[in-house]
Amino acid sequence: MPNLAAMAAAGASAEAVESVYPSTTYPAHATIVTGLPPCKHGIFSHLASLDPTEKARPWCWFAAGLRAPALWDVARASSRRTASLSWPVSAGAVIDQNIPEIWSPAAANPHEDFTTPAQHSTPGLFPEVAQALLPMLGKADPDRLRGEAVGYIWARFRPHLLLVHLVWYDAQAHAFGPDSVQAMAALESSDAVVGRIREITAGDRTSLVVLSDHGFLPVEKEVAPFVVLAENGLFGRGADGSFALRRLGAVNAGGSLALYWLEPPSSDDRRRLERALEKLRSSTGVQEIVDRARLKQLEADPDAEVMLEAAAGFCFSDRWEGPVVSDSAKVRGTHGYLPSRPGMEAAFIAVGPEVAPRRSLGRISLKQIAPTLTHLMHLPADILGTKEKSLVLG
Fold first, then answer.
1. Spatial distance between the Cα atoms of 113 and 107, rounded to a whole number of angstroms
2. Least CB-packed of 60, 92, 131, 265 within 10 Å?
């Protein structure tokens, strides 16, 4: 990865970045742009629905879900031009040039749904960028397309703040494992894209920050909590025999799974849940039951009753039937675990006119990114709701 290595030599980098809980893309990206933990910014998961029986669950695509100002709001308050490309939780945001990450929940492959992001983009922007990328369509991975889209947007609009989300390593690491040949090839492709963006945006006043939102761990086995929860009567059955929602909601985050009471539970409901949790606790696939007190310490979702933490080598499955523990059918790598778990660390590298070369930042928090970026742009940080201090990069 020559481009990231060159950036680390030319600028500041962290030994590790501690993510949020769950360590998944949407809560983490909301923290990146607000400087706040999930309990404050309000994005607790990738999913906007707590109903695990729903067939096509919508995601937290819309910026209206944020309970606090984001970087684009800070930039706009100072009359700075903003642009965003495939950034999570940005649909509908007040961004000058915006192509958000969004797709139809019914789409078989989100990377092939162009209609939905076009509908939610800045009017006219999606077809304009798509026309410029036409020669590459079908020949390049999603990150290369994003890199060239950055080049077009940069040349055409010269934004003061430009956010782009690269996705290909994440997709390959889930499917084949974080250290697989496919994932490493995706990482090398991402490195080339970063180099291209650095070349495109090069200038005396430009700062470039490359960071990840979470780490990745390999998976060999899966554990299916819904099998146990259904056995204990916490879900019902519809007329067609399919499982139906009762009082218990759930969100699977891969390495963790959150459970919610959607209505006040009866004492019988609580006993049923405790029996189910005891069986899951005794299985080889669950490492820990994270209770409400611990969730508060982790600044996670205050409405979750508990979160299940998967054991090493395990992920959670959405299966309703079959064995509780089995070999992983589709997933070879995942995240979503406690951010303190080895392997969940994220990365951070920054270069720019105010960034000292070869500066080591040690272990930092994802919550420090937003105030650091406002500092690099000389924007008033008090618009953000965070009390985190900017990293000292110079």
1. 7
2. 131
Q: For residue 126, what are the CA distances in angstroms to 96, 137, 138? A: 13, 14, 17
Query: Given the DSSP bridges, would you call strands 82-85 and 161-164 parallel, antiparallel or unpaired?
Result: parallel
CA distance 37 to 40: 6
Amino acid letter, residue 39:
C
What tens digit of pLDDT does each residue of 123-146 get?
Answer: 999 999 999 999 998 899 999 999
> At 161, which amino acid appears?
L
| Contact (Cβ atoms closer than 8 angstroms) between residue 62 and residue 46 | no
Residue 340 within any structural domain of the chain: no
- Do residue 178 and residue 237 come from a single domain? no
Shared-domain flag, residues 178 and 255 = no
pLDDT tens string 61-119? 999 999 999 999 999 999 999 999 999 999 999 999 999 999 999 998 888 899 999 99
Judge if 108 and 171 occupy the same domain: yes
Residues 331 and 222 sit within 8 Å (Cβ to Cβ) = yes
The first and second tokens of residue 265, run together, are: 């539970």
The β-bridge partners of 307 are 258, 290
Q: pTM for this one?
A: 0.97
Q: What is the DSSP string of 251-294?
A: EE-SSEEEEEESSPPPHHHHHHHHHHHHHHHHSTTEEEEE-HHH
Q: Domain count for the chain, please give it.
A: 2
Instruction: Dig out the tokens for 280 from the structure.
Output: 């899951």
Instruction: Write down the residue that tokens 């889209």 correspond to.
Output: 149
Buried b (16+ CB within 10 A) or exposed e, 188-204: ebbbbbbbbbbebbeee
Residues 6+ away with beta carbon under 8 Å from 316? 222, 223, 224, 225, 252, 253, 254, 255, 256, 257, 308, 310
Residue closest to 59 by CA, chosen among 41, 45, 77: 45
List the domain range (segments joined by +) for residue 240.
221-331
DSSP secondary structure, 192-251, as one string: HHHHHHHHHT--TT--EEEE-S---EE--EEE-HHHHHHHTTSSEE-TTS-EE--SEEEE
